[in-house]
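Notes continue from the previous slide.

Worked example: a multi-chain complex. Inputs as given:
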Amino acid sequence: MSGVRERNASAWLLPAEGSRSDHRLRDDMRRFDDSDEVDLAIVGCGAGGGTLLQRLARRGWRVVALDAGPFWDPEADWVSDEGGSHHLYWTEPRVISGSDPVPLGSNNSGRGVGGSMVHFAGYTPRFHPSDFRTWTNDGVGADWPISYDDLRPYYRDIEEELPVAGDYWPWGDPHGYPQRPHPVGGNGEVFLRGALKLGILAKVGPVGISNGRFGNRAHCIYRGFCLQGCKVNAKASPLITHVPDALAHGAEVRPNSMVTRIHIDERSGRATGVEYVRGGISHVQRARAVAVAGYSIETPRLLLLSTSRRFPAGLCNDFDLVGRYLMVQGAPQTAGRFPAEIRMYKAPPPEVSSEQFYETDPAKPYKRGFSVQTVSPLPITWAEHVCAQGYWGQALRAYLRDYVHWTCTGALCEFLPQPENRVTLSDERDRNGLRVAHFAYSQCDNDRQLMAAAQDVMERLQRAAGAEEVITIKRYAHLVGGARMAADERHGVVDADGRAFAVPNLYITDGSILPTQGSANPALTIMALAARIADRMADHARAG
Amino acid sequence: MSEADATPGRSRNERFPGFNVLAQTGAWDDVTVGVVMKRIGMPPDVRFFTPTEEAAARALFDQLLDQREEPRVPIVNMVDARLAEQETDGWHYDDMPEDGQVWRDTLAALDADAMAAHALPFAACGRREQAALLQSILSLGSGAWHGLNAERVWSLWTRYACTAFYSHPWAWNEIGFPGPAYPRGYKHAGVNAREPFEVRDRRPDDDPAARRR
């Protein structure tokens, strides 16, 4: 890993002791004026925006990332407490509908610098090569305009920068990880035991949680609060993996700045900057190019809000594709009861996973597949699991008193992209007077079959490990799609380089450009894509 | 906590006797201590619910969380504070209003059902009558209850109730969960492994499912 520090010194720029934040870097941060025409204004400083910011700052670009949320200081702003972490989520008003509406807010929408990776569990699997051509292979989903090989070097780079710990990975494109796997807790032990009995291959990792000191970042302390923001600085998020290096190279992060509109020059059709609200006052940051990285709900919403004479139906929406093909993963969760004490709240929730069921199995009636992973709900989330079985009152309390005896596994099912699963604008308005996002979601038959198959595998696995009782709930995880990349403008909003077909100096660099989602947690892929787009943007700029 | 356990209702902590999460506050970081200790102090006054709603909500939460004795975890104040401060998850179903309005509507609906069945508001009904009424709502599944999807109403009620209850150190004592863990962390993860400050479950066979079988 000798090259990591030369490529990205973030881990070495954080303070070695005491405070976990780079306060001096933030105090000394370059600050552009609204009237400065920066090279690039980025909307959102999460997995996509934060990575892009660092890469282009390194290349000497004058670049600013505007984020609607705070510039977190983990020591002061985050707590080691489940109920006290509500402020980590995007809780602005939204409307949901469809035959299978997807609740937002707590589990799938982050805010502030670092984005959803602040509260993500920490799993960082790669996509498989097959994910990039599901249409050709299976007649479902869509083919990407790039292949796995285009992303491979970026996967490797980002894995070194997070860094990722895990066993040698035998699935997809087999590969190793820069750090050895973490020791497992009770939940991981049980998963490995059940998998062994059933002949299911299971591996430890891959997680973006440092196993050992990394630069000035501390070793994981196995406290189990990964989803509440890592106060230790062990779990990766752009806040600590990319933003410090970006600031050291002259980038600006402008927090608490909600971008409300992308400005377009009606004559040339080019983006000229972004309008944003900060402290109740509206500003316009001028920019030579704009990158949108607000994730799958807010990115389409911002495009749809940015109407003009040239784009009366919303920016880049000439073919009614903005907001469409939004995906969530089906994430059924199976808990098992054991006579022994498991105490699944100890050790990070992401411990062990299997991708044995990831690929299309010709013997099955459905296409594509699912992955299975440990998840370790804390008491409030565990209570939701129990309530979903219809337990309340005395029974609810009794199940909760039994908490230390339970394990929990979750699946990620590859739900297929469908045009009607989409974001549109509601008639409701937020406190800025802007129409809020309306997110409709309905499952197809293939989705439902995958959910049932995943539930069956998880329940068999728990029983094989010795569970006396298993209970499964249906839920969802992650968001991707909504402004997908494609080979041409009739099938997607952006091209293979993340550049909008309709506006040559507008890019989208977040999870919304994914045409399919596999059964992998999306964070690593979003970062790798952003790193690749950064290279391509620099090439475009050189070409003029 | 030798005489009475620090549990909801001061009931005997039969599974984790003597376990007291608050004895460990010295191992927590200051910010977390502040957030958790606020839940132990005097609860905020009711501001969102009207007196009529407050009475129905109190009875509903007592049922959902089986709280029968003082000192109770003050669920009604905790939920009321969230609603007063609009600390919701933000989203709502397109066929339901936002959370605050759903609370007002459904508490009124509970009273209406209780009046129709027993000529009393929900809070004035006996525990058994209240429980039967709630069970009948749960049994509707995704069917309609006063024009709302019953399953979604039930989920909203229990989500708010459990988020409050299981954020309280008394509830953690009862379930053997040590609460905050920074900066100390854990050294003994694994099946049947315990930290020195964790208490072994004295009734490992007390499986709620086994009792039902």
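Summary box: Residues 51-165 of chain B form one domain. Chain B touches chain A through 66 residues (CB under 8 Å).
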